[in-house]
Amino acid sequence: MADTQYAYAVARIRSKELTLLGKSDIDQLMNCKSEKECLRLLTDKGWGQSGEESVEQLLAGERTKTWDLISELVEDMSIFHTFLYSNDFHNLKAAIKQVYTDSDLEDIYIGSGTVKPELFHKAVKEHDFTILPEYFRACAEDAYQILMHTGDSQLCDIIIDKAALETIYQKGKASGNELLSEYAEQKVASADINIAIRSCRTGKDKIFIERALAKCDTIDIKKLTTAVLEGEDAIYQYLTTTVYADAVLALKESPSAFERWCDNLIIKHISPQKYNPFTVSPLAAYVLARENEIKTVRILISGKRNNISDDSIRERLREMYV
């Protein structure tokens, strides 16, 4: 896409940014007394289609709106695939488990991806992974064999999750785009930190840890593995030597606090990209801003539904892009 085409697309995105939820909008939602009141307020702000959707339908619809807009503005959508590979690998995992259990469950697949869910199901059902893009084949075969012969669903998950991280990393770094490269780096690093903490707390061995961690530039997975085996304090000590030193307090607080820290870090890094009009970066930043917005609304409404205190809900809310 030429610079002038990006300039037009970015101008369209600028107008859409004006409709993103800001801090005052989140405060308004927090002041709602019920889930139903939240939905009514969101409808007034242009969310949803019929005004009668459930929360999940509303949020799924908003995600669809985002990708429909981007596909209108960009001829080649492949540059955005870095954001969608997680959905693909989730669908691969779901297909393998569906075939293994011989179940006919509905709503196990995520719609937004680079590969149609039916193709994953066909590949697993027929045990023919050559019909999938190359980066799925090896992990699909390994995970399939593990589950079919041992029934070890956790190891099946680890194999696919690591392949997902490696694909996101490789594609993000190969994109030539600063934002996508940064996103891939933070995605893999935060996943590695999460894996390390969970592995330490559940007493996983070295083989498990090495099988789960994915390589990236900002985390030395050999040092991280050694730290996991030494204990949680060793993990925190190692992290203080990295660019993720500020994450230690969040990690000590709770898993959800660390997840919030990671999401806020991404928003902090992508915000400057809105001033870079001759690249695809402002469009990619808008996609991430919308995902952040949808996640924040889901957390908020879920809290209202479950009668969680406002203070507890606020502790989990993300920083907004605007």
Can you offer a commentary on this structure?
With 322 residues, the chain is an all-alpha fold. The protein has a domain at 1-46 and 53-74 and 281-322: ATP synthase (C/AC39) subunit, domain 3 (Topoisomerase I, Chain A, domain 4, Orthogonal Bundle), CATH 1.10.132. Helix content is 69%, strand content 0%. The chain contains 16 helices and no strands. The protein has helices at residues 3-17, 23-30, 35-44, 55-73, 85-101, 117-125, 134-150, 153-174, 178-201, 206-212, 221-230, 232-239, 247-253, 255-270, 281-305, 310-316. Helix 5 packs parallel to helix 7, helix 9 (178-201) runs parallel beside helix 11 (221-230) and helix 14 (255-270) packs antiparallel against helix 15. The longest helix is centred in the C-terminal third of the chain and has 25 residues, at 281-305. The chain starts with a helix and ends in a 6-residue tail after the last helix.
